[in-house]
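sry for the spam today, last one i promise. struct tokens for design, 344 residues
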């Protein structure tokens, strides 16, 4: 091999090595990715005494030496309510990672002390701090009933005449505030329906479509130590323009008959213990009767009915229900636009 050829080969190798050594890599280096995790700046909050009733916002800050999966948990020490925020980053930006007083699961937060914990996946370190809620969140929505002032004046309540009927306002275990509506009793006959509560509504100002309009409500069950078989909440929504209560001899409102525009949804079964908060898009309701155009239009809603139902114990349908109280209690019933209430 001649000298010129050897020189050209050597020059090519040198240029290749130079190109490799000067190439710019995107993302963190392999040393960072595989290196030990390190906390550069531990967890801090921007407000340790927020008043969410006046729209205070709490921001969270922390910084690490590399991108990681992290979980932030805020837990109320009185209610046990929990707000969970997750992410993948090397930094919690207090302008982006924020809390406005909502919860990931009921019960809702109240004025209480809260612990805040930040953990990183597969790392033993837990960063902690505390804060105190000075004022609770006022949720953005269209209220139907929270029962704080009792049963709404125009609402209609009906229940069968049997044992242990509890279609009334109670204070012993509310989801929110001090009152809730107990809705249940002993199922001792052939029909499924124990009772109901009807509310008139005027939603003419609503602009959302059916897919972006949500019914939110808390449902309580199982607190007496037993669950009735196939107990559920049957929900009817009417878009009828008829008078709400034109015939006072009926057992309920007059806008849910089979010749009117009515839609139905069932929270079924109610088979849990304690409170659960449920959000249902109006688009998820099915047509119950053919009295209208069968187009779910939130602005046309004129009434809602919430019924307590369960498999009857009579005639051997569900004999196990003969000595069990059906319980589908409700609280904090509210419509929201664009997102479920717990996602606010």
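last one done:
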């Amino acid at each position: 091999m001649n000298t010129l050829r050897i020189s050209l080969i050597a020059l090519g190798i040198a240029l290749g090595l130079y190109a490799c050594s000067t190439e710019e890599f995107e993302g963190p280096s392999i040393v960072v990715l595989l290196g030990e995790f390190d906390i550069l700046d531990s967890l801090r909050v921007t407000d340790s005494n927020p008043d969410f009733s006046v729209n205070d916002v709490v921001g969270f800050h922390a910084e690490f030496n590399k991108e990681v999966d992290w979980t932030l948990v805020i837990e109320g020490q009185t209610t046990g309510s929990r707000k969970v925020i997750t992410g993948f980053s090397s930094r919690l930006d207090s302008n982006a990672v924020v809390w406005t007083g909502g919860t990931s699961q009921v019960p809702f937060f109240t004025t209480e002390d809260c612990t805040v914990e930040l953990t990183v996946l597969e790392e033993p370190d837990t960063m902690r701090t505390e804060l105190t809620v000075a004022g609770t969140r006022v949720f953005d929505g269209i209220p139907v009933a929270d029962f704080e002032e009792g049963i709404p004046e125009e609402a209609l309540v009906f229940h069968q005449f049997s044992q242990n009927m509890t279609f009334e306002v109670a204070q012993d275990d509310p989801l929110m505030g001090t009152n809730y509506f107990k809705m249940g009793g002993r199922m001792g006959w052939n029909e499924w329906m124990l009772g109901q509560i009807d509310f008139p509504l005027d939603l003419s100002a609503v602009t959302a479509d059916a897919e972006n309009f949500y019914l939110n409500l808390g449902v309580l069950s199982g607190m007496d130590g037993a669950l009735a078989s196939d107990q559920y909440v049957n929900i009817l929504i009417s878009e009828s323009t008829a008078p709400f209560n034109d015939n006072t001899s009926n057992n309920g409102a007059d806008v849910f008959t089979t010749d009117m525009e009515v839609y139905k949804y069932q929270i079924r079964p109610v088979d849990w213990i304690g409170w659960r908060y449920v959000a249902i898009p109006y688009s998820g309701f099915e047509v119950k009767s053919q009295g209208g155009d069968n187009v779910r239009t939130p602005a046309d809603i004129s009434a809602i009915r919430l019924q307590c139902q369960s498999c009857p114990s009579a005639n051997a349908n569900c004999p196990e229900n003969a000595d069990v109280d059906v319980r589908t209690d409700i609280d904090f019933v509210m419509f929201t636009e664009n997102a479920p209430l717990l996602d606010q």
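The domain at 30-132 is CATH 2.60.40 (Immunoglobulin-like). ok im logging off now
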